[in-house]
Amino acid sequence: MMKLRLINLIPLIITIPAISIGVVAMYNNKVPILIWAQNIACFIIATLISYFVISNKFKKRSNRFYSISIIISMLLIILTYMGQSINGVHRWVSIGFIKFNVSMMVLPLVIIALWSLHEIKSLWVTITIIIAIAILLAIQPDASEVTGFSIPMVVMLCSRSDKKVLRVSTIGILSILVVLSWVFLDNLPPVAYVERIVSLLSNMGLIWLVFGIISLVILPAPFIFFSPKNSELPSISVGLYFVIILISTLVGNFPVPLMGYGISPIIGYFIPITWYAKSIINS
After folding, report:
1. What is the DSSP letter of 89?
2. What is the pTM of this model?
3. Where would one find the signal peptide in this protein (predicted)?
């Protein structure tokens, strides 16, 4: 019983260090309360929803659920092109004064959903969807998300032994898209409390910097090192996604998930960590 209760709290335990340290950094650097309060509010709501989902005995998600999730996610990514761009970059859907970074919000779920689709559908169907999403991300452009999505997909495709030529061709296409996305990198300027939040921590002292880095390293760790039985591949794939997103922040102006300002990365992380905890219980 105690073990089950701890599993129910996995999303809270894993996320609270990065979010808390990020809020402290923003507060210490005089970032307006309206900014960092959004992270706190989203964190509280996401934690409550996650705990409810994990604690209740919902039926196992059907393949139809994952198919619908992929369709909705692709539509949301396409919707980013309908709004006004920022310096030619299309990554956001706005609701009022809040901008949602769609790819950071939906791609972890898409990775899990594609694994489910990969298991039951023709390889052609899975590959078509993978390439379509990768192209949409590359056109946005978003080198971090293209890379974070493509590499887990390569791992997933390599897990199958059939249709080698088709798989190799797809891996080649994804590799080209990744390279092109970094060659034609966007020129959006960094925001101190989004992309440069770690720098704000370093200004606060070495201890804050060390704790901040540790809190970020924790985020992909459970997916990779403690994968649930029968779901190792999607778990590791999601973990790889977050590893790549974190590494990308070191070489480009990309948002630091959970620690920096932004409710989209919080939503995007709570979805797979809730799935992870639920999978641990079910296994």
Report:
1. B
2. 0.94
3. none
